[in-house]
Amino acid sequence: MGDEEKRNRAITARRQHLKSVMLQIAATELEKEETRRQSEKANYLSEHCPPLHLPGSMSEVQDLCRQLHAKVDAAEEEKYDMEMKVQKSTKELEDMNQKLFDLRGKFKRPPLRRVRMSADAMLKALLGSKHKVCMDLRANLKQVKKEDTEKERDLRDVGDWRKNIEEKSGMEGRKKMFETES
To answer: Which of 24, 48, 57, 135 lies 20 to 30 A from 32 at CA?
Structure first.
């Protein structure tokens, strides 16, 4: 076990040494990155912001202020125009997304409960207190008389089927069948 403990300690010492070396390398890389950013910032400012020379007289200072205000106004107008374009395009996107959503039909329908209502209750719910008519649907139906058709008369005349079978059985029954056919 002593040998194995030495081995584990060596491995952990090696890991710690590697970690410290990696941290040192990372720290130097971060410093290099920071100096590079500062030099890029200085280059950008020297290109886009020339050094300011302040004039000596009051009229020249006022002219300089007017020029700066004009530039600020132009920048503000440009900013406002861009914001309006962004708002307009955002609204168009929302409208199109809503149309897509509607076309796909993926909107959730609320779960509806089935309610049993009579016709009177429905009219009362729709019309409110104006509802005076009572809708008894069966009262408005027509009365229809059935006319006797030939088939019904024949069936009524035939009567009991057992009686017919007894009459047609035997030789006399067959004789009657032939007589009725001719």
So the answer is: 48
Expressed as residue numbers, the domain containing 39 is: 1-51
Report residue 170 as tokens: 């035997």
Are 64 and 94 contained in the same domain? Answer: yes
Does residue 73 share a domain with residue 90? yes
What is the Cα–Cα distance from 75 to 130, expressed in whole angstroms? Answer: 65
**Ramachandran bin of 53, using left for φ above 0, alpha for ψ from -120 to 50, beta for the remaining angles:** beta
Provide the 3-class DSSP secondary structure of residue 47: helix
How crowded is residue 123: how many other Cβ atoms within 10 Å of its Cβ?
17
Any domain includes 12: yes
Find all residues with CB under 8 Å of 119, minimum gap 6, and list them: 135, 137
DSSP 98-111: HHHHHHHT-PPPPP
Q: 139 versus 128: which is more confidently predicted?
A: 128
The residues, ordered by sequence, that sit 6+ positions from 68 with a Cβ below 8 Å of its Cβ are none
CA atoms within 13 A on the CB side of 171: 0
Instruction: Answer yes or no: is 144 within a domain.
Output: no
Confidence band, pLDDT 50/70/90 cuts, at residue 88: very high
- pLDDT for 15: 92
Packing angle between helix 170-181 and helix 161-168, nearest 10 degrees? 100
Q: Say yes or no: 33 and 70 in one domain.
A: no
When divided into structural domains, the chain yields a total of: 2
